[in-house]
Fold these 2 entries.
Entry 1:
Amino acid sequence: MQKKLTGTAAQRYALAIALTLVSAESSHAVGFLLPNQDPEAIGRGDAFAATADNPSAIYYNPAGITQLPGTQVSLGIYAISAYTSYEAPSGPVRAHTNPTPQYVPQVYAVYSFDKLPISVGFGLYAPYGLGINWGNGDVPQPERGNLTYVTANPVVAWKICKMLSVSAGVTVNYADASFQENDGIGIFKFAGHSLEPGFNAGILFQPHPMWSFGVNYHSESDATFNGKAIQVGDPLLPQTVYTTTTINFPQTIVGGISFRPTPKWNLEFDLSWTQWSRLGQITLQNSPFGPYSLALNYRDSFIYDFGVTRQLGKGYYASVGYIYAQDSSPSGDYLGLIPDADLSLGNFGFGHKGKHLDWAIAYQFAYYGGRNVNNDAHSLDDGEYKTFNNAVNGSVTLKF
């Protein structure tokens, strides 16, 4: 992807740093959210808030951990090959992101008391992030960005009665961002980090064996990045600048309905809303030219999840799912470092539940045939962006 860096040095510099803090290739359309946190859920199209019957419920709906007896520990990894291509309106500029797989681990642990209607859990997962590299194709100025966002999440759940469970937890969120760009004049590098708190909560209501309802909530958080920018080769800018900026990460609400016509079948639909409108602009508190604001003007968006699971007998099961994810970035403020579009995602899963060991594996692909960007305000080349991502997730759960 090519950038028209013909504006002032101040605008170019501020844009480079600001892009760092939101740069990520996500398997979904909604900004840089990573809602794929367990293969059993992914195989069902992430429609899991009203089922939530394994340790990943800590992420999908923490109230669900009251369904898990004893001690259970789950270890998983999500591998994604994220590919987006770009073509300029008049050619011949073409580029694509580096599809080298990226890996995101997940760890969950749950303990339910024998004589109390209380369960406790701990999760370690990455709800945002990944990286992107546009240095492939006819582009002489490669752009690279990486966002690592890790959440530590202890939770407590209470089974109020046979039909109703509630839960709440705190989140400690660590983020680390890096960026590099060569615009033909100088090389810009940035690295910064942030640590901030948040919380999550859930409700699971099961009035009948055939019906289950779930609500999951993840709070907003304000991440203040403190970092250092280094440039080499541009005489208009100092070599090192220390800067601070705040990113307003969104809140998310998920509601789900599960219908189980027989013990062998589970059909679920989830609707997820993310308040991306909190990410209106990014303001750099310090740059060689004073404070600078970059407008993003993100908009709130929805994800529609649908999944079906069939029990095959002897503990084996298979799942299929479909996801439709709305984009959150308007064309007028589109950032090529966050290839955002309405996406359709297909999901397939297979697994086994045993007395002491569970395992699951899921495959997911995301596709969008083309998003045309015109009159973009950030001096990015207008053009067509296409997306095709492949991802695999696997996990094992030990039960004591």
Note: Confidence is low (pLDDT under 50) at residues 1-7, 24-29.
Entry 2:
Amino acid sequence: MTPAVVLAAAAGISAAAALAELAAAPRRARRGGRAAGGGGHLGGMAVLLARLAQGAGRRAAPADLHARLAAAGTPLGLGVSDVMALKAAGAAAGLLLALPVATLAPGRLGIALALAAPVAGFRAPDVALRRRARARAARVRAELADVAELLRVAVEAGLPVGRALAEVGRRLPGGLLGAEFGAAAARMELGEPRERALALLLERCPVDGVATLAAAIGRSDRHGAPLAPALADLAAEARAQQARELHDGAARAAPKIQLVVALVLVPAVMLLMAAVLLQTLVNR
């Protein structure tokens, strides 16, 4: 590897770090910039450039990015503009890091690498958000039956809906759905309308069971329909869904086990038998 390639790689890494620092500058400035007296002309310029980049990113952001952020649990308190700034930084970092390798790649492979790396860097935050949202949805489905059953018990005990949600959150502090229920109850206590609090809960937990629960609470508020039977049906359906998922997982695992046996265990046994037979023939 030539010195030029090493210097180019170092420049790419430094540029990626600088872009990440630029994207994080507004948040640090909001927390401590005023107390520090502005941080000098260089810090002020970085903050200004980052705010301009975030403003442009907010205007160019996809329409569903806010919903995807909410479904992912708003990691690190990031907003839409922050994610767009990270996407731009990832694209620039991917290009800068790929250039040294692209110069060494033969033929058109270098051009393809130089084009693919920025796209991969730009899409990396989307992939991370999607994986986090899937993991959260899986946790919510796993906890839904117990949470709905506990909420039914609280409602049947005579607690109002807001108090029942808070009680569920208090008794299930380690669960994701219980924590979201507690946060929704806290927003209601601060004066936020119940409909808006439930809508935000559904944004952060976009699962069919949570939508059914929010709809049942809405019907109970509007028409006075009893909430406990709907919660009991929801808990039963959630447990049935868990059983179906376990059955489907076991059904999908059987062909994989058979494939492992056919491709790994059977050839290993045959090789062992061949080795024993060969040793027997050699000894004769």
Note: The mean pLDDT is 80.
